[in-house]
Design a protein that fits this description.
Low-confidence stretches of chain B: 567-578
Helix content of chain A: 40-55%
Radius of gyration of chain B: 27 Å
Number of helices of chain B: 24
Helix content of chain B: over 70%
Largest sheet of chain B: 2 strands, antiparallel
Strand content of chain A: 15-25%
Distance between the termini of chain A: 41 Å
Mean pLDDT of chain B: 86
Largest sheet of chain A: 6 strands, mixed
Number of helices of chain A: 11
Radius of gyration of chain A: 20 Å
Structural class of chain A: alpha/beta
Shape of chain B: globular
Structural class of chain B: mainly alpha
Strand order of the largest sheet of chain B: 1-2
Strand order of the largest sheet of chain A: 6-7-8-3-9-10
Number of strands of chain A: 10
Oligomer: heterodimer
Order of helices and strands of chain B: HHEEHHHHHHHHHHHHHHEEHHHHHHHH
Chain lengths: ~280, ~575
């Protein structure tokens, strides 16, 4: 299978700290891939390298064969990579529809002069943009909530709206940063099937950062594990679950002898209580 | 225990009121305002301001009392008001007493005999006892205001405010009405005196407003509902009718108002142009620009250099050719400012742009560039606009003759300025509703996310600077033609600050807000000559009060309303969920 994104020896430093250390990574086209790892393992930094938020210090990132590590975020988005954020970053004081319309920005072409003059082309384009936004809103299951302010939407709906906004940029590769954070088991199950629909119906390749092991193992075709900025394992969910280095990274050396299944349970329990406190 | 509390609260409110009255006296307001009347032969503006303070302290004490008891208790409320007013009056009386016995002038320039004469009604030292009495009565009045049911209080408040404003601007109304023919002249003399409203005028205006407001209270909802029940076309034609009415007034106004008011309105219109421009950079895109006057200066100097028949004139072209060029030059300078500060955010951006504004002003006025820009002498002899053909340039200091109508007076420039303001308001509105407008809003909310959604930050921000600068450039161009000459000294930092302030007061990001803000902050002080000395005191006070009471501005945009009241909205949704 051809890979849509290839990272070669990507390194990112913050002063003396090596956040991502010479990571090689490939995402096969139309697959669902997860990156996991303990807190501070460099997952989000790696995401930022891909989307152009933080340029990698070394290495190369190829998207469909084009090097993108020197491009600006908006250029990368135009090529077909879009993302959501760990802590939801919607335009809180804009309506749900307006949020999606901003996502469509790159694919609208009317210049400001023609907008001021109100040329027929502009009006037609705006109409189409609005229809598309409405369609995306319905697709993520927020029908009829287009005029709500993003900040007034319930938490789960905000997550969905953020995905709809990312979809508006017509991505080929969608990066989801902890999409199930703060969700109950029922909601994360819905999310899992929703992510699958994105891939199956829209043909979008998905890259996930996720902590909920149930979500990760249930959905991913491949899993990559980062620890202290280094890739320590890579493979199918089954391979990862039985990998002693992964268990060690998560739970310390002693736990490596325990079964991974129990380890995951414990890990996700810990996570849940943390979120409960937060 | 509680009873003591409420009396003590009232005393505190009174002391505060007293401090304010003394402050008003010491800055010289009382004395200057005493030359103006609110109601002729009854009360001067100076007295009115002091009385208003006493009433206000009574009102505040009364309000605190009722919140202390959790319910309105008439006797205690009135007592609190009385005490607060009395204390205010006593403090003021004490001040007068001290003022007579010790000479305060060494420190406070305004603590002079004329001031004490005003405070003792011209009757000398022994006549300070009326002050506490008036204070107590005023406080009582304020407190009783709280006890009146809402249905009556609102019309009364409205009546007081409208009458007060009419009194402030009575001189203007009088002039405007006397300029008319027919019975209007006599009506003007009957209602408006030389220095304030007449007694008859006061009563007529007050009761007219009260009665109208009273009925609006009962019928207003019904009327509004009836309008909203009209078919769409009916509503539209109603709106068009309203617009036509405003247009008619706008066209007719300078014909009846005389040159002074026309000039004031032109100034307001120029600030509206600048406000609309900064509203794009600051209100839409969230980029704070404190050097905005630079673009105004660049527009003005471009028109000056291109059209002047003075020694610095370059091309001697007509106004109509020069203005588009000025707008373009301003736009380009917007890009020149924008490029280096693209990556600068927030507070740092404000400081960087501040520097830009100062650089432009200093360069324009410098001896170094005096060869080109006239230095401190400025550029004089700016050609007036001409509807028709201009004759050829003869020589320096001789204006080109106009074959047609020369638009030379403030009245003529008024039309140019108002038309430009309307046009730019339309452009700004279209921009906000466009794809670019959405991109600006996104940048204002979260720059990083906007960029990650495919918005080119460089392009979008530069467009915000350039379009904002273009608006200001047009303002400057018209300003240069209005005055006929330009000097670097009129391009002060204060102009930039005025523009920011009028946007904030009007409502960030709101187009009607810019207009309201410009009228409130530029027009009113221009018209109230007495106030102009305390302009910045009022300015500061108005800004503080606005930020506390109505942070979203006088006429907020939809987005700002949401932003500042989302807490309420969240409460509502929370209640729904329960």
């Amino acid at each position: 299978m051809a890979s849509i994104l290839t990272a070669k020896k990507v390194t990112k430093r913050f002063g003396g700290l090596v956040a991502v250390n010479s990571v090689d990574f490939a995402i096969p086209e139309k697959s669902i891939v997860s990156i996991i790892g303990p807190n501070g393992a460099g997952k989000t930094t790696f995401f930022n390298c891909i989307t152009g938020f933080g340029k990698p210090d070394e290495g190369e990132i190829l998207f469909e064969g084009t090097p993108i590590q020197r491009l600006r975020p908006d250029q990368i988005t135009r090529l077909g990579i879009s993302r959501t954020y760990q802590n939801i970053r919607l335009f809180a004081d804009m309506t749900a529809l307006e949020n999606i319309l901003v996502g469509e920005h790159a694919f609208l072409h009317s210049s400001w002069i023609s907008s001021v003059l109100g040329l027929p082309g502009v009006i037609k384009e705006e109409k189409m943009a609005l229809a598309e936004a409405q369609r995306l809103l319905n697709f993520v299951g927020l029908r009829g909530q287009g005029d709500m302010l993003a900040r007034n939407l319930p938490y789960g709906a905000q997550r969905r709206l953020e995905i709809a906004r990312a979809l508006a940029t017509k991505p080929k590769l969608l990066l989801l940063d902890e999409p199930s954070a703060g969700m109950n088991p029922r909601e994360s199950e819905d999310l899992t099937s929703f992510i699958r629909r994105l891939r199956d119906e829209l043909g979008i390749t998905i890259l996930l950062i996720e902590h909920h092991m149930r979500v990760v193992m249930g959905i991913s075709e491949f899993v990559t594990v980062l620890d202290y900025g280094e890739k320590i394992a890579e493979g199918t969910p089954a391979q990862i679950q039985s990998n002693p280095r992964v268990i060690e990274a998560y739970l310390g050396r002693g736990a490596a002898t325990e079964g991974m299944a129990t380890a995951h349970e414990r890990f996700s329990d810990k996570k849940n209580t943390q979120q409960g406190l937060g | 225990m509680k009873k003591e509390n409420f009396i003590w609260n009232a005393v505190k409110a009174g002391l505060l009121g007293g401090a304010i009255t003394i402050f008003i006296c010491l800055v010289g307001m009382t004395e200057i305002f005493s030359k103006r009347d609110v109601v002729e032969k009854v009360i001067t503006l100076g007295q009115f301001v002091l009385l208003a303070t006493m009433v206000a302290s009574g009102l505040i004490a009364a309000r605190r009392t009722s919140s202390l008891f959790g319910e309105v208790r008439p006797v205690r409320t009135l007592t609190a008001g009385l005490v607060a007013g009395l204390v205010t009056g006593l403090v003021l009386a004490l001040f007068v007493y001290i003022g007579y016995s010790i000479n305060l002038r060494a420190v406070f320039l305004n603590a002079s005999t004329p001031l004490y004469n005003v405070l003792t009604f011209g009757k000398g030292q022994s006549y300070i006892w009326p002050l506490p009495v008036i204070g107590a009565l005023g406080g009582l009045l304020g407190a009783s205001f709280l006890l009146i049911p809402d249905v009556y209080r609102r019309p009364l408040t409205g009546g007081l405010i409208v009458t007060f404003f009419l009194a402030l601007f009575s001189g203007l109304f009088r002039v405007v009405m006397i300029n008319q023919k027919g019975g209007v002249e006599n009506a003007a003399k009957y209602l408006f005196g030389q220095t304030g409203l007449t007694v008859e005028g006061t009563l007529i205006f007050f009761f007219a407003v009260v009665i109208i407001a009273f009925f609006w209270n009962f019928r207003g909802k019904e009327v509004q509902q009836r309008i909203s029940r009209l078919p769409k076309r009916g509503q539209l034609s109603l709106r068009v009718l309203g617009l036509l009415l405003i247009l008619y007034l706008a066209i007719g106004l300078p014909q009846v108002s005389g040159p002074f008011i026309a000039q004031v309105i032109v100034t307001v219109a120029l600030f509206i142009l600048m406000g609309l421009g900064l509203n794009i950079t600051l209100g839409f895109a969230g980029l704070l620009d404190l050097g905005f006057v630079a673009f105004y200066a660049i527009g003005a100097y471009t028109v000056g250099l291109l059209t002047s028949y003075g020694p610095f004139g370059l091309q001697h072209v007509s106004f109509w050719v020069a203005v588009p060029i000025a707008v373009l030059v301003a736009m380009l300078s917007g890009a020149v400012l924008g490029l280096p500060v693209l990556g600068v955010r927030g507070d740092y951006l404000a400081i960087a742009t501040l520097g830009f504004g100062e650089i432009v002003r200093l360069l324009a006025g410098s001896d170094f560039l005096a060869k080109y820009f006239g230095g401190p002498q400025g550029i004089i002899g700016i050609q007036k606009p001409c509807l028709g053909t201009l004759e050829a340039f003869v020589r320096v200091d001789v204006p080109r003759a106009c074959n047609g109508i020369e638009l030379g007076t403030a009245k003529d420039i008024y039309y140019i300025a108002v038309l430009s303001a309307l046009l730019l308001a339309f452009v700004a509105w279209r921009l906000r509703e466009s794809r670019l407008g959405r991109a600006w809003m996104a940048i204002r909310e979260d720059e990083d996310v906007a960029e990650a959604l495919g918005i080119n930050l460089i392009q979008t921000k530069l467009l915000a600077y350039m379009l904002g600068a273009a608006f200001a450039g047009l303002g400057g161009a018209i300003f240069a033609t209005l005055i006929g000459s330009i000097f670097a000294t009129s391009m002060q930092l204060l102009v930039s600050i005025n523009v920011v302030a009028l946007i904030v007061v009007g409502g960030m990001g709101s187009i009607p807000g810019v207009i309201v803000g410009a009228i409130a902050l530029i027009g009113m002080p221009e018209l109230l000559r007495e106030v102009s000395e305390f302009r910045f005191l009022f300015y500061g006070a108005a800004l503080i009060i606005m930020m506390l009471a109505r942070p979203e501005g006088l006429w907020p945009s939809q987005a700002a309303k949401r932003e500042l009241h989302h807490a309420d909205a969240e409460n509502v949704t929370a209640e729904h969920m329960i």
